[in-house]
Amino acid sequence: SRTIKLAVIPGDGIGPEVVAEAVKVLGAVTARDDVTIETSTFQLGAARFLETGDVLTDADLASIQQHDAILLGAVGGVPGDPRLKDANIERGLLLGLRFALDHYVNLRPCTIYPGVTSPLAAPGVVDFVVVREGTEGPYVGNGGAIRRGTPQEVANEVSVNTAYGVERVVRYAFEVAQGRERKRLTLVHKTNVLVFAGSLWQRIVNEVALEYPQVAVDYLHVDAATIFFVTNPGRFDVLVTDNLFGDILTDLAAAISGGIGLAASGNINPTGRFPSMFEPVHGSAPDIAGQQLADPTAAILSVALLLDHLGLTDAAARVNDAVADDLARRSTSVRRSTAEVGDAIVTLLTDKVLK
Ligand code: NAD
Ligand code: IPM
Ligand code: MN
Predict the structure, then answer these.
(1) Is residue 304 within 6 Å of ligand 2 at its C-beta?
(2) How confident is the model at residue 79, as a pLDDT?
(3) DSSP assignment of 207-247, as one string?
(4) How much distance in Å is there from the Cα of 123 to the middle of ligand 1?
(5) Could you give all domains of the chain from N- to C-terminal order, each with its CATH number?
(6) What is the DSSP code (8-state) at residue 284?
(7) Contacts within 8 Å (CB) and 24+ apart, 188-194
(8) Binding-site residue ranges for Mg(2+)
(9) Is 74's C-beta closer than 6 angstroms to any atom of ligand 2?
C-alpha cells in the first residue's frame, strides 16, 4: 500500500470552492486502489496576510516541502485592493513556491474535449501542450526604478534567462514531444526583437534538437502564435516558451478550449528533489467567489496531472475519462453549482468502477 502526503493550499476567492471538489475526486478515484491520501491544509493567501501579515514563512515552506505533492486552488485578493499593495501575494506566495521548489516546468495542456463548445467556429481537433518555463524570465524581476516620483522616473524589469534554465526546460519539452504521436515542437519567442531569444533560446533548441532527430521543430514569434491559436490551433503539438509568454498564451489556450474553468496545470520539478504543485490556470476570481459559480473542472483536471506525476497513471486516466464524460453530457441551459459538478464527476468515476 502507498501513502501520498499531499499539501493542500485552498487559497483565496474560488480557490477553496474548487479545491473542495478536487479533493473529493481525489478521494473517490483512489478509494479502490491501495493508495491513501494524507492531506494537510495550509491556509495561505490574501486572507491570511490580512489576518497575520504573513505571506509564506520559512516554517510554511519547510513544512510544505515534507509532502509528496501540492494541490493549490488560487491565491490573490481583489485586484487593486490597497491593503494588499505591499504584500503582493502572487509574487510572494505563488512565485515564492515555484521558485523555492524549483518548478522549472509549467505544464499546461490544451484540449478541446468532445461536446465542449469553443468560441472558435471550426477549431478542428485541438490537443497541444504548452511547456512554459517556470523559474526565470521577467518573473525573476528586479523591480528596478530610479528617480521615482520625478518626471524622469525610469522603470525596468530584467528578464533573467540562463543557459542552464533554458536548456533544462527545452530538454523537457523535447522529451514530451518525443513521447507524443505527432512529435512536433514549436519554440515561441520574439527573436526579431529580443536578442537573447535568438542567441540563447533558439540556439539551445537547435543544439538539443540534434539529440531528437524524430522531433520536427519549428519556430513562431509570439505575436504570430496568437494568430494561429485562433485560426489553426490544430497545428500545435508541443510548444516551449518563456515564463511570461507562456502565461499569456495559456489563458488564450484556455479560452479557445472552452473556458478558463477547464484549464489545468502542473508546476513540475522533474528531478523529484522538490514536491511538484498542481493548480488550475485560473485565479481567485473575486467576481464570482463564494457563490458556488466556479467551474471546478480545471482543479479536477489538475488532480489528473498530479496523479500522472506520481505515477498513478491509471487513476489519472480515470479522472480524465470521468471529466470527459461529464463535459460531453453538460447542458448549456442548466447551470450547476461548483459542488454539483464535482459530485457529477465523482458519480461518473464510481459508476465506471462498478462496471
Ligand atoms: P481570474 O482567472 O481569477 O479571473 C478571470 C475571469 O475568469 C473572471 O471573470 C472569473 O470569474 C473567470 N473565472 C476564473 N476561474 C473560473 C472558474 N473556475 N469558473 C468560472 N469562471 C472562472 O483572473 P484575474 O481576475 O485576473 O485575477 C484574480 C486574482 O487571482 C488576482 O489577484 C490574480 O493575481 C490572481 N491570480 C492567481 C492565480 C493563481 O493563484 N494561480 C492565477 C491567476 C490570477
Ligand atoms: C498563472 C498566474 C500567475 C502567473 C500569477 C498570479 C503570478 O497568472 O499561474 O498563470 O503569472 O504565473
Ligand atoms: Mn496566468
Answers:
(1) no
(2) 86
(3) HHHTT-TTSEEEEEEHHHHHHHHHH-GGG-SEEEE-HHHHH
(4) 24
(5) 1-102+270-355 (3.40.718.10), 118-257 (3.40.718.10)
(6) -
(7) 188/219, 188/220, 188/221, 188/222, 188/225, 188/239, 188/240, 188/241, 188/245, 188/249, 189/219, 189/221, 189/222, 189/241, 189/242, 189/245, 190/221, 190/222, 190/223, 190/245, 191/219, 191/221, 192/221, 194/159
(8) 223, 247, 251
(9) no
**pLDDT (tens digit per residue) in 251-288:** 999 999 999 999 999 999 999 999 999 999 999 999 99
> Does 277 sit in the ligand 2 pocket, CB within 6 Å?
no
pLDDT in tens, 31-67: 988 899 999 999 999 989 999 999 999 999 999 999 9
Catalytic annotation, residues? 139, 190, 223, 247, 251
Q: How far is the CA of 34 from the centre of ligand 3 (A)?
A: 35
Query: Which residue has 478542428 as its cell numbers?
Result: 124
Ligand 3 centroid to Cα of residue 227, in Å, is 19
- Ligand 1 within 6 A of CB of 205: no
Q: Which of 56-60, 193-197, 329-333 has the lowest mean pLDDT?
A: 329-333
Which positions make up the binding site? 98, 108, 132, 223, 247, 251, 283-295
Say which DSSP state 286 is in: T
Find all residues with CB under 8 Å of 269, minimum gap 6, and list them.
Answer: 101, 102, 103, 104, 105, 275, 276
- Atom 6 of ligand 1, residue of closest alpha carbon: 285
Q: In this structure, are strands 216-221 and 105-111 parallel, antiparallel, or unpaired? A: unpaired
The model's pTM: 0.97
Return residues with CB closer than 5 A to ligand 3 (ion): 247
